[in-house]
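Explain this one:

_____
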Amino acid sequence: MSLDDTPDTSTADQRRNAQRAALLDAASEMLMRGGPDAISLRKLAARVGTSTMAVYTAFGGKEGLITALFEEAFDRLADAQNAVPRSPEPLLWLEGLGRAYRQFTLANPSYYALMISVTMPVSEALRHEELSITNPPARGISRYPSYQNLFDAVEACVADGSFAPDGDPMMIADAFWATVHGLCSLELAGFYPSAEIAQARFSFTCFAVMRGLLTEKGLAKLQALAGA
C-alpha cells in the first residue's frame, strides 16, 4: 500500500463526530417535543439519514443515547462559559457567565430543556450514580464544569471582598443558578413579549440579585464598573 492509499483517519473521525452530533441534535428535539416515548432509534436513524446500526455504534443503544444527551447539554453550556474571559475583576467574570448561560439557552433550546426536565428519562448509567426519583438528575448539576465555573466566580467575589467573607459560596452560586435558570425558562416559554424585553428583565433581575449580596466595597466596585 502506498502512502496515497492510507486511509485519512482524521477525515473519518470528523465524519463520525459530525454524525454523532447530528444524532444528538435530532434526539434532543424529539425528546423535547414528544417526551420519553418519542425516542425511537429507528426513527432517529431515519431522521438523520443513517442506519440503526450507526446509532448503536455511536451510543450502544437507547440508554447510552440518553446519557449522552444529558452530558452533551452540560458540555455545551461549559463550552459557552469557558469562552468568557476570566477577568481579574470577578464581578465582571460573574456577569459574563450569566450572559453566557442565556446565550447558550437561546442557541440550544432543546438541550436546555433536557438539563433538569422532569420528563427526562433517567438512564441506567445515571441510576448507577445514585440518581433516581428520590435523587433526580438535577441534583447532580453541581458535579459539572458549568456549575463549577459559576462556583469559582462566586468564590473569587468572596475572596476579594465583593461578597461578605462569611457568605456560603455554594448557597450564593445556587441563588445565581436559580435566577438565570428561571429567567431563561420563562423566556423560552414565551413569557416575555419580545427578545428586547426579555434581555432587559434578565439584566435587571441579575443585577438586583447581585446588588443584594454585595458588601460596601463590592457595591462601590460595581458602581465604578457601571460608570466605566
